[in-house]
Design goal:
The complex is a heterodimer of chains A (about 240) and B (about 110).
Chain A: H1 3-16, H2 19-37, H3 42-52, H4 55-66, H5 71-81, H6 85-92, H7 94-97, H8 105-111, H9 117-126, H10 135-163, H11 169-190, H12 194-213, H13 218-240
Helix pairs in contact in A: 1-10, 2-4, 2-10, 2-11, 3-10, 4-5, 6-9, 12-13
Chain B: H1 4-28, H2 37-59, H3 70-86, H4 91-108
Classes of the chains: A mainly alpha (about 240), B mainly alpha (about 110).
């Protein structure tokens, strides 16, 4: 390994150690507590964190399984909740492989597992900076950054899981609310485009309406019905303009 | 409650189902138009599903959160969002404020028996 690229790995790891690791850690602290509540042993909490590495998907899985939904329906819902990764890897990977790719396809397919909302957002922004113009340095930066994020998430999930039993009731409720609260603020606070706002409102409305009649299908329904409604609304607006 | 083996199987299936999108992104990078209608529909569906999930957990949760009051949870969300914006998009401020309001309201309600 070239010393210069090694430095980029450390740089990525160090930049992840601040706010990104802490915010992710908070979310996974809550996830650990919910996992304990759902009857997960610690090793399954870790397996879910590494194998899925997407907090919304991990929550969908937990929710649907607790509700007794079928495996196929659960996997479909989790997969749909992860569709956002498609545009993310689609836009991120070319930034690390353009030109004469020094890396092989399978390495990119493995690295794709590291892509999350946080790692993607930071990497896309940092890759514009002068110190990360070299493709190998970007690769190293991205893997270093992601390693710290996943490590922090895993440690915090275990802490959350072990802590929940030892906490007084009030703190337990607070910990359980942490993850949904985090996503609520992320979704509502960060929604900028008209189509994402429409999708938020339609998705939430459909899920709550369906929850009363068909709780098993409320998440899939929210995605398909709410998402399609938001999409059509946007189309109609665009056409009128 | 599902057994550990059932949970493990579901995790494996869901991990694969999640990775498919990431892998597909790698394979198609540079070959698919991010401005296309198909692309926009997929992101709308993804967004709506996650929004539905969070709405359901907050309004009609299962498990531990089901023991708390709906009003307290909604109050906490409003407080967190307000603090987040007042502190110039600071996630920590939002979380701390939301949790403080939530536990405070629950305490006043006499939740801790």
């Amino acid at each position: 390994m070239i010393p210069g690229s090694r430095r980029a790995f450390v740089l990525g790891a160090r930049e992840a150690l601040g706010v990104p690791a802490a915010v992710l850690g908070a979310g996974f602290l809550g996830y650990g507590s919910l996992a304990a509540d759902a009857g997960y042993p610690v090793y399954l909490t870790l397996l879910a964190t590494f194998a899925i590495w997407a907090l919304p998907g991990q929550l969908v899985l937990m929710e649907m399984q607790a509700a007794g939904a079928a495996l196929a329906a659960t996997a479909l819902a989790v997969s749909l909740s992860a569709a956002r990764f498609f545009p993310m890897t689609l836009t991120l990977m070319p930034l690390m492989r353009r030109g004469a790719g020094a890396r092989r396809l399978w390495q990119f397919l493995l690295a794709a597992q590291l892509v999350s909302m946080t790692t993607w957002a930071v990497a896309i922004r940092r890759f514009e900076d002068g110190d990360l113009q070299d493709l190998e340095a970007r690769w190293q930066y991205f893997t270093g950054f992601s390693a710290v994020c996943i490590g922090s998430a895993a440690v915090c999930a275990v802490i959350g899981q072990l802590l929940i039993g030892a906490l007084p009731p009030l703190a337990k409720y607070g910990l359980a609310l942490l993850t949904p609260l985090y996503f609520f603020v992320t979704l509502v606070g960060e929604a900028r485009s008209k189509s994402s706002i429409a999708a938020l409102v339609c998705g939430a409305g459909t899920a709550l309406a369906l929850h009363a009649v068909a709780p098993d299908w409320s998440l899939l329904g929210a995605g398909f019905i709410g998402g399609t409604a938001a999409f059509l609304l946007q189309r109609a607006r665009a056409v009128r303009r | 409650m599902p057994s550990a083996a059932e949970i493990g199987l579901a995790i494996a299936a869901c991990g694969l189902a999640t990775w498919l999108w990431r892998g597909l992104g790698v394979l198609l990078s540079g070959r698919l138009d991010p401005e296309s209608a198909m692309f926009e529909w997929v992101s709308c569906v993804a967004y709506a599903l996650v929004a539905g999930l969070i709405a359901r957990i907050i309004v009609a949760p299962s498990g531990l959160l089901a023991e708390t009051a709906l009003g307290d949870r909604l109050l906490a969300c409003a407080a967190a969002l307000l603090a987040y914006h007042l502190a110039r998009r600071n996630m920590f401020a939002g979380m701390i404020c939301g949790l403080a309001v939530f536990t405070g309201a629950a305490y006043v309600r006499g939740l801790i028996a």
